[in-house]
Design goal:
- The chain is α/β, with parallel strands linked by helices.
- The protein has two domains: 5-169, 3-Layer(aba) Sandwich (Rossmann fold), CATH 3.40.50; 188-291, 2-Layer Sandwich (GMP Synthetase, Chain A, domain 3), CATH 3.30.300.
- Helix content is 33%, strand content 22%.
- It has helices at residues 19-27, 71-85, 101-109, 134-141, 160-169, 188-203, 239-244, 249-266, 286-291, and strands at 5-12, 45-51, 54-60, 89-95, 117-122, 148-151, 213-220, 226-234, 270-278.
- The strands form two sheets. A six-stranded mixed beta sheet has the order 2-3-1-4-5-6, with helices on both faces. It has a three-stranded mixed beta sheet with strand order 7-8-9.
- A hairpin with a 5-residue loop joins strand 7 (213-220) and strand 8 (226-234).
- Helix 6 packs antiparallel against helix 8 (249-266).
- The longest helix has 18 residues, at 249-266.
- Bound molecules: guanosine-5'-diphosphate (GDP) and magnesium ion.
- Magnesium ion binds next to helix 1.
Length: 298
Amino acid sequence: MSGMRCGFVAVVGRPNTGKSTLVNALVGEKVSIVTPRPQTTRHRVLGIRTRADSQVVFVDTPGLQARAGKLINRTMNRAAAGSVTDADVVLFVVEATGWRPGDEHVLGRLASCRSPVILVVNKADLVRPKSKLLPLLVRLEGRREFAAIVPVSALGADNLESLVATVLRHLPEGEPFFPGDVTTDRGREFRIGELLREQLMATLKSEVPYGVAVEITAVDDAGATVNVDALIWVAKDSQRPIVIGRGGATLKAIGSGARLEIEKLLGRRVFLQTHVKVRRNWADDARALRQLGHDIEG
Ligand SMILES: Nc1nc2c(ncn2[C@@H]2O[C@H](COP(=O)(O)OP(=O)(O)O)[C@@H](O)[C@H]2O)c(=O)[nH]1
Ligand SMILES: [Mg+2]
C-alpha cells in the first residue's frame, strides 16, 4: 500500500449547475469546457488531481436531463448515469440560488446509489449575505442521507479545499491510476475540438449551438506554428449561414477566440482553419455520433 488516497469521483447534477467549472477549479486546469449554456458538456471527461498523498479522478459528466429525446441526449444521460455506478464518491452539484425540478430528477436517479453522495451547493457567491444559505442547507439535509453538504463557489474558488478534504475522507487507500503529471484522459485532438466548440456554443444564439459539432481533421505540428483543420458540423442548411455570418464575420470571431485558447493549451502558435459542413440531423444519427467520439451501443 502506498498510503495514498485514490479514487474516482463522479460529478453529477442537472445541466448548468457548474460541474465543469468545479472540475476545472479542482484540477487547476481547463480540462472541460464551460459556457453560460446548459448542456455544454457532451462527453464524459476525466479531470485528474494528483498530490503527494492522493489522486482524485473527477468524472465530469453531461448533465442528467429529465427529458431526453434525441439519441445524443440519451447517450449523454447514459454517460452520466454510468459514471455513478463506478464511483467511490458522488458529488451532486446544485445551485445555492434554489432547488429546482431538475435537481429532483437527479436525486431520484441517485436513489439506488451505494457510494457516499456529497451534496455540493455551488454558486454560493450569488447568495448574500451568506446566512441566507442556511434555510436551503437545512431543507436539503432532509432530502437524502448525504455524506456531507458543502457550499462552495467553483468560480470564486471558495471553500474548495474543504470539499477536497471531505472527498479524501471517503476514498480508499491505494495506488494512483494515472501518472502524476496527467490532468485528463482526453487527447490533444479532442481538447482542441472542445475549445472550438466552446467558442461556438458561447457565441451562437438560440438553438444553433445545439446543432453544432466539431471534428478535428488534421493537426500538423511539424512547422513553426501548429496547423489545425476543423470541420464544424451543423444539423440544418439554415444553420450554415448563421455560423459563418455576414462576410464570414461570425466564424472569424469564433475562430480567433478558439485559436487563443488552443495556443494556451499547446503553448505554441496556432493556425486554425475552419470549414462548415451540413450533416443533417447528426444528433440523432448513431454513426455520426460514433464519429464524434460518443459511445453508442449496438
Ligand atoms: N456565479 C457563479 N457562476 C458559476 C459558478 N460555477 C459555475 N458558474 C457558471 O455557471 C455556468 C455553467 O457552468 P458549467 O461549469 O458549464 O456548468 P455544467 O453544465 O454543470 O458543467 C457558467 O456560466 C459558469 O461560469 C459559481 O461558483 N458562481
Ligand atoms: Mg459541463
